Fold this sequence. Notes:
Blueprint: E1 2-4, E2 7-9, H1 16-36, H2 49-60, H3 72-94, H4 98-120, H5 141-153, H6 157-174, H7 186-196, H8 201-215, H9 223-238, H10 244-257
Antiparallel strand pairs: 1-2
Amino acid sequence: xxxxxxxxxAAPALPGAAGxxxxxxxxxxxxxxxxxxxSGDEPPVTIPRDPAREAARRELSKGMYHENDPSLLQRALNxxxxxxxxxxxxxxxxxxxxxxxxxxxxxxxxAVLAALWWRLGTPRRRPTSxxxxxxxxxxxxxxxxxxxxxxxxxxxWNQALxxxxxxxxxxxxxxxxLDVRPGRTADEAAAEAGRTLPSHTDRLRSAAQEFDDVxxxxxxxxxxxxxxxxxxxxxxxxxxxxxxxxxxxxxxNTRQGAPE
Length: 260
C-alpha cells in the first residue's frame, strides 16, 4: 500500500513472481504520481484504473510467470477427480447411513456382478465364420482319443473336449459313415452324422455346440461337459447306422405286407 499525493493505492496480494510484478507496477505508478504531483495546491496526476489493469494483465501474461503452471492433462485430471469427489459426496449424503451406507451399497453391487460372472461365465461370442474342425496334420481317431485322455488326466478340460470331438468325427469317417472332407466344421459333421445315426442327432448337435463355444466362443469346458462327449463317443462306437437303402427297403416291404 502507498500514499501518493493524498491518493491511497492498494496492490492485491499475489504469490510469487506475479506479486512481485504487480508490486513493481504499483511502485512505478507511485513514482510517476509523485513526480507529476507538483506543489501541494495542484491536484495529483494518477493513472486511470483501466490502463493500470491492462498494464498488469500484459505483465502477468509473460511466460516467466507460468513456468510452473500445471499441464493441460493435469488440469483435466484435477477437474475429473473434483467431479468424482462431488459425486461421491452427493451420493453419500443421499444414501442412508452416509459414507458407510454408500460403501455397503457399492460392495453389494460388486458381489452381485461377481456372482453373475461366476454363474454365467464369459459371454458367448459367435465367430463370423466357423473355422475347420481339424488342423492340417491328419490323425486317427485313436490318436485323438489318446490326446483327449491325456489332457483330461491333467484337468485340461478345454483341450480334452476338443480332442474328443475330433475323435468322434474321425471315427465316423473311418467307419465310412462320413465322407472324408477337409475343412468340415463340427456343426456340419453333427448334421451329416445325424442322418445315419438319428437316435443320436440331439447329442451330436449339443456336442458340436459345446465344441464351438469352447474353441471359438471363449467359454471354459468343465469335467462334466467332457464326460458327456466321451460318453457320446463310446455310445457311437456301439451304434449301428441307419442306411438310406435299408430304410427304403423296410418301408417298401411294410407297404407290400400291409393288408389291402
